[in-house]
Amino acid sequence: MKNIDSNSHVRGESVYLDDIPLIQGTLYACVFDSPIAHGKLHSINVRDAETSDGVIRVITAKDLIGENQIGGIIPDEPLLADAEVHFQGMPIAIVVAISEDFARKAAKKITVDIDPLEPVTDPRVAAANGDLIVPPKKFKLGDTENAFKTCAHVFQGKTETNGQEHLYIETQGAYAVPTENGGMKIYSSTQGPTAVQRAVCRVTGLAMHQVEVDVQRLGGGFGGKEDQANAWACICAVAAQLTKRPVKYALHRMEDMRMTGKRHPYSSDYKIGLAKDLKILAYEVTLYQNAGASADLSPPVLERTLFHCTNSYHVPNVTATAYSCRTNLPPNTAFRGFGGPQGMFVIESAIAHAAEKLGVSASEIQRKNLIDDGDEFPYGQKAESDAVTSWVQGDEKYNFAKLQKEADEFNASSRYLKKGVAMMPVCFGISFTKTPMNQARSLVHVYTDGSVAVSTGAVEMGQGVNTKIAQVAANVFGLPIERIRIHPANTLRIANTSPTAASAAADLNGKATQLACEAILSRIKEVATELVEAGSPEDITFTDGFVFRSGEKTGLEWQSLVLESHLRRVNLSEHAHYATPGINFDWETAKGHPFAYHVYGTAIVGVTVDCLRGRYEIDYVKCCHDFGSSMNTSVDNGQIEGGIVQGIGWMTMEEVVYDTDGKLRSSALSTYKVPDIYSVPKEIAILPLETDRQNLAIFNSKAVGEPPLMYGIGAYFAIRNAVRAFTYCSPDFNTPFTPERVLMNIYGTQTTDGHR
Ligand code: MTE
Ligand code: LUZ
Ligand code: MOS
Question: What's the pTM value of the predicted model, to 2 decimals?
Answer without folding.
Answer: 0.97
